[in-house]
Design goal:
Elements lengths: L2 E7 L4 H9 L4 H9 L1 E6 L6 H10 L12 E4 L4 E4 L10 H7 L4 E6 L10 E5 L17 E2 L3 H9 L17 H23 L4 E6 L1 H9 L3 H18 L4 E6 L3 E4 L2 E4 H7 L9 H7 L4 H11 L2 H7 L2 H4 L7 E2 L15 E3 L4 E4 L5 H13 L2 E2 L2 E2 L1 E6 H4 L11 E5 L3 E4 L2 E2 L4 E2 L6 E4 L1 E7 L7 E2 L3 E2 L3 H8 L4 E2 L18 E2 L4 H5 L4 H11 L4
Parallel strand pairs: 1-8, 1-9, 2-24, 2-25, 5-6, 5-8, 11-19, 26-27
Antiparallel strand pairs: 2-23, 3-4, 6-7, 9-23, 10-22, 11-21, 12-20, 13-14, 14-18, 15-16, 17-18
Helix pairs in contact: 2-8, 6-8, 7-8
Protein name: Nucleotide pyrophosphatase
InterPro entries: Alkaline_phosphatase_core_sf (IPR017850), Phosphodiest/P_Trfase (IPR002591)
GO molecular function: hydrolase activity
Amino acid sequence: MTKTLVVGLDGASWELLDPWIEAGELPNLAALRDSGTWAGTRSCLPPVTFPNWKCYSSGKDPGGFGVFWFENVDLAAGEINVMNGGDYDTAELWDYLNDDGQSAGVVNMPTMYPPRDIDNLVVAGGPDAVEGEYRSISSGYTSPPELAEELESRFDYSVHPDPLLSSNDERGAEVDAILDLLEKRFEVATTLMDERDLDFVHVTLFYLNVLHHFFWDDEPSLRAWQLVDEWVGRLDDREDLNLVLMSDHGCDATQTEFYINEWLAENGYQVRDTSVDALLTRVGLDRENLLAVAKRAGLVDTLARVVPESIQQLVPQRDGVKRDRKLEAIDLERTKVVASGQGPVYINPRFDVDSVRESLMADLREVEDEHGPLFTDVYRGEDVYNGPYVDAGPEVVVDQRPGVHVNDGIGGGTVQSGPDRWAAENTPHGIFAAKGPDFEPQGELDRISILDIAPTLLAAHGCAVPTDMRGEVLPVFAEDHAVGERDPLSIADALGSDDGDAVEDRLKQLGYME
């Protein structure tokens, strides 16, 4: 059977790549499109890393696995919790490959920290493991655990670049560190695929989208894509390989920064409480200013080691408090609505949810800037999600217009502004391209769903498609791939034990159970 390598290109969009392809800057990507099959993709809402990498690998939207953004908002309990890989209740395409007796490796996959066992290897990565931003890495990032030592000794591998990019002005060592990381991702994925004779490997280039956010189509992003293009050329030359390129979402130049919780407060949906963060923000003490000072003094690593993370999190970001600290800044008893960034909006069940939702959706549809409405649509959550977790999701979901960044910061004081730190914002429009012995060149297809990719990859490997995957097998094969359907695996099945007590212990260890 032919091997498959999936290269996950975080935030990739044809809107960014087409001008470079037409200018001859990315000849191997151009050749791959000319000789293979390609399409634009549509992500699940919201179009962000958490949850769309799992939408890809599970073939489900967030209603199918219970994670709707980087955070879980439960206003009835008065809680906002930061999510990690243990919070996703779903098996993934590599679990089905394993169940069929095929080997798989996953390298630098966002949404997979802490790592869990598959046959053969997992290397966790992505923003859920960023020290000081979402949560520190408190355990190993590989499965099996001893793989980390091999990666570090053989490849000088690391989960995150050093120094970390934090400003549009940092175009030297910070960008070089990201390019070095991207190179190592390719080296690790291709080397281990060959040495371990793996049937399937997925590798994600997460920090590619960090460059998009800070630089959009400027030179640092082009340098990264030229590195990707070189590797595409090398991989395209292999006759034993199905090569698939895909992204979790797309990106486009930022036009407007919309601070949705500030808008909610201004329009009577949210009531604020005095917090330490608000006082610090008023005197100009924020995380971005402190990081800039620490970088100039060469004290970033020292402060990270000496200052407990709980203390670091007390310093607000420039655009206000986020994540689990948002509830400290509002009076929940009198607040009707709280929003996450880039889409999900939650209504406090202490109020009449239906009437609040009706007025809120009408008001959000009226929000504009000089380019027009900020949202291409405003949905009820049950109209965009499917599965057992719909009731735990947001009551309202906004589909932000390309170029709009919906920022969830509380306390910054601004409702709308021009671009802040991000030169580009996520969009639902990503990329897909495929070429290899099992694929019939089809040229450009109509836009596909990100949910179609997992069923198509399973079909390429002769595996039946589980009935809870919502995507379709794409018409991209040289021969008939009518693989049929199968019953889904549970997460306990995916962990692979017949001993109920052992399964429960492992689930607790990995964070799937309390």
